[in-house]
Amino acid sequence: MKKGSDGRVQxxxxxxxxxxxxxxxxxxxxxxxxxxxSTATRENFLPFLKELKLGYMCAYAKGHSGxxxxxxxxxxxxxxxxxxxxxxxxxxxREAGTKLVFYYSGLTDGIAGMRHPEWRxxxxxxxxxxxxxxxxxxxxxxxxxxxxxxxxxxxxHLRELIENYDPDGIWVDGDWCGPCYxxxxxARFRKETGLRQPWSEIRVRPDFDSLYRPVWNRIEAExxxxxxxxxxxxxxxxAYSAGNVSPLVFMISTPSRxxxxxxxxxxx
Length: 268
Fold this sequence. Notes:
Elements (H helix, E strand, L loop, with lengths): L13 H4 L6 E2 L16 H11 L3 E7 L22 H12 L2 E7 L4 H6 L14 E2 L8 E2 L7 H17 L3 E5 L9 H11 L5 H4 L5 H27 L4 E4 L6 H5 L6 E2 L4 E2 L1
Parallel strand pairs: 1-2, 2-3, 3-6, 6-7
Antiparallel strand pairs: 4-5, 7-9, 8-9
């Protein structure tokens, strides 16, 4: 960073603008025993946005627990939500000329798994894929992409977020909780491999992992393609990014002209 004759940084926002992930507000909506967003005001937020001149800002819409920072029709909002943070952030970022990307936990969702046990991912031994069990303030489940989770849950959230708040992008985390070994995924595995033995015999095969991983990779890829397609259906210009791939400013500005795929994520 450039410094003046007094040794002070001349442009404190430059390091952010030179970074791929310019700023993510890690204001977790998981903690339910304290207010969320109650002290956020235009006066204490907008000056910093204007000074930093961010290309875009990424902030929570839904965390791994499943709690949301807006009042959803699914009744998933933070228990002590002080204000609609999605509306607040959309208003101040628009005034500051900053793009807004919402962070959304994908396959990891505690509330969805709690209310719909039939959606939960399964471990190889048939137990539920419960996550963060050693955390006192956070509980989550992996939800199977072949279940009704997308239609009954995710699609509802995405429609609310995009139609009500007009984000410039959606960044999806939490798709890392697989593989899933539920009956739906077992059926998909059998269909693709042709194996018909009892599951108890299949899962102890020496080559089981090497056979199962490609099938799961395709299931996960289809999930992301479905997610991306629905985002684009609701708002063609809304960028979608998943896994560990973070959107660049120009990608959010012209998302249809940029596509990148990686081993752990992809962006459109």
